[in-house]
Amino acid sequence: MSTVMIVDDDSTTTSLLETLLELDGFKVIVARRGADVMPKLGESIPDVMMIDFHLNDVEGVDIIREIRAHADYKHIPIVMASGMDKSDVALEAGANEFLLKPFEPADLPTLFNRLISG
Questions:
Q1: How far is Cα 85 from Cα 71, in angstroms, rounded to an integer?
Q2: What b/e string do you get for 19-50 counting C-beta neighbours within 10 Å, with b at 16 or more?
Protein backbone atom coordinates (compact mmCIF):
# COMPACT_ATOMS: atom_id res chain seq x y z
CA MET A 1 0.00 0.00 0.00
CA SER A 2 1.42 3.37 -1.04
CA THR A 3 1.37 6.30 1.36
CA VAL A 4 0.56 9.88 0.38
CA MET A 5 1.03 12.93 2.59
CA ILE A 6 -1.45 15.75 1.96
CA VAL A 7 -0.25 19.16 3.17
CA ASP A 8 -3.19 21.57 3.12
CA ASP A 9 -4.80 23.83 5.72
CA ASP A 10 -8.30 23.44 4.24
CA SER A 11 -10.01 20.70 6.27
CA THR A 12 -12.75 20.20 3.66
CA THR A 13 -10.15 19.54 0.97
CA THR A 14 -8.07 17.21 3.13
CA SER A 15 -11.14 15.23 4.26
CA LEU A 16 -12.34 14.78 0.68
CA LEU A 17 -8.91 13.77 -0.63
CA GLU A 18 -8.29 11.47 2.32
CA THR A 19 -11.58 9.63 1.71
CA LEU A 20 -11.10 9.33 -2.04
CA LEU A 21 -7.47 8.23 -1.83
CA GLU A 22 -8.20 5.66 0.88
CA LEU A 23 -10.93 4.20 -1.34
CA ASP A 24 -8.25 3.86 -4.03
CA GLY A 25 -6.01 1.94 -1.64
CA PHE A 26 -3.68 4.67 -0.41
CA LYS A 27 -2.67 5.24 3.18
CA VAL A 28 -3.08 8.99 3.84
CA ILE A 29 -1.15 11.22 6.24
CA VAL A 30 -2.48 14.77 6.66
CA ALA A 31 -0.45 17.79 7.73
CA ARG A 32 -2.55 20.94 8.13
CA ARG A 33 0.37 23.30 8.77
CA GLY A 34 3.78 23.63 7.21
CA ALA A 35 5.33 23.31 10.66
CA ASP A 36 3.89 19.78 10.94
CA VAL A 37 5.56 18.44 7.79
CA MET A 38 9.11 17.70 8.93
CA PRO A 39 8.03 16.08 12.23
CA LYS A 40 5.55 13.87 10.34
CA LEU A 41 8.24 12.93 7.81
CA GLY A 42 10.38 11.87 10.77
CA GLU A 43 7.61 9.47 11.83
CA SER A 44 6.75 8.05 8.42
CA ILE A 45 8.19 8.75 4.96
CA PRO A 46 5.41 8.83 2.34
CA ASP A 47 5.74 7.50 -1.20
CA VAL A 48 4.40 10.78 -2.61
CA MET A 49 3.37 14.20 -1.27
CA MET A 50 0.79 16.77 -2.33
CA ILE A 51 1.42 20.26 -0.97
CA ASP A 52 -0.84 23.30 -1.26
CA PHE A 53 0.91 26.51 -2.32
CA HIS A 54 -0.64 28.78 0.32
CA LEU A 55 -0.69 27.51 3.89
CA ASN A 56 -1.58 29.43 7.04
CA ASP A 57 1.96 29.45 8.42
CA VAL A 58 4.28 29.18 5.39
CA GLU A 59 4.40 29.03 1.60
CA GLY A 60 4.33 25.48 0.23
CA VAL A 61 7.41 26.15 -1.92
CA ASP A 62 9.42 26.80 1.26
CA ILE A 63 8.43 23.33 2.48
CA ILE A 64 9.49 21.82 -0.85
CA ARG A 65 12.89 23.51 -0.62
CA GLU A 66 13.33 22.21 2.93
CA ILE A 67 12.41 18.67 1.85
CA ARG A 68 14.73 18.80 -1.17
CA ALA A 69 17.61 19.93 1.08
CA HIS A 70 17.18 16.91 3.38
CA ALA A 71 19.06 13.78 2.28
CA ASP A 72 16.45 11.37 3.71
CA TYR A 73 13.49 13.04 1.97
CA LYS A 74 14.81 14.60 -1.26
CA HIS A 75 13.73 11.57 -3.33
CA ILE A 76 10.01 11.88 -2.44
CA PRO A 77 7.88 12.87 -5.47
CA ILE A 78 5.99 16.10 -4.75
CA VAL A 79 2.87 17.50 -6.39
CA MET A 80 2.08 21.16 -5.68
CA ALA A 81 -1.45 22.53 -6.04
CA SER A 82 -2.69 26.12 -6.21
CA GLY A 83 -5.66 28.11 -7.40
CA MET A 84 -3.23 30.40 -9.26
CA ASP A 85 -0.76 29.25 -11.88
CA LYS A 86 2.39 29.00 -9.80
CA SER A 87 3.86 26.16 -11.85
CA ASP A 88 7.15 27.96 -12.59
CA VAL A 89 7.78 28.72 -8.92
CA ALA A 90 6.70 25.22 -7.83
CA LEU A 91 8.86 23.37 -10.33
CA GLU A 92 11.83 25.65 -9.65
CA ALA A 93 11.50 24.86 -5.92
CA GLY A 94 11.64 21.14 -6.68
CA ALA A 95 8.07 19.95 -7.25
CA ASN A 96 7.71 17.09 -9.71
CA GLU A 97 4.24 18.17 -10.87
CA PHE A 98 1.92 21.16 -10.54
CA LEU A 99 -1.89 21.02 -10.42
CA LEU A 100 -4.06 24.07 -11.00
CA LYS A 101 -7.15 24.12 -8.77
CA PRO A 102 -9.82 23.08 -9.26
CA PHE A 103 -8.46 19.73 -10.43
CA GLU A 104 -10.26 16.42 -10.78
CA PRO A 105 -9.62 14.42 -7.56
CA ALA A 106 -10.33 11.18 -9.43
CA ASP A 107 -7.16 11.79 -11.50
CA LEU A 108 -4.88 11.79 -8.43
CA PRO A 109 -4.41 8.01 -8.00
CA THR A 110 -3.10 7.69 -11.58
CA LEU A 111 -0.79 10.67 -11.14
CA PHE A 112 0.49 9.47 -7.75
CA ASN A 113 1.07 5.91 -9.00
CA ARG A 114 3.00 7.24 -12.02
CA LEU A 115 5.22 9.36 -9.77
CA ILE A 116 5.77 6.51 -7.30
CA SER A 117 6.77 4.02 -9.99
CA GLY A 118 9.18 6.58 -11.41
A1: 29
A2: eebeebebebbbbbebebbeeebeeeebbbbb
User: DSSP string spanning 70-107?
Assistant: STTTTTS-EEEEESS--HHHHHHHT-SEEEESS--GGG
pLDDT digits (tens, 9 = 90+) for 76-98: 999 999 999 999 999 999 999 99
Instruction: Share the mean pLDDT of the chain.
Output: 96
| C-alpha span between 50 and 52 (Å, rounded) | 7
Cα-Cα-Cα-Cα dihedral sign, residues 86, 89, 90, 96: positive
pTM above 0.90, yes or no: yes
- The whole-angstrom separation of Cα 28 and Cα 6 is 7
Of 13, 70, 85, the C-alpha closest to 37 is 70
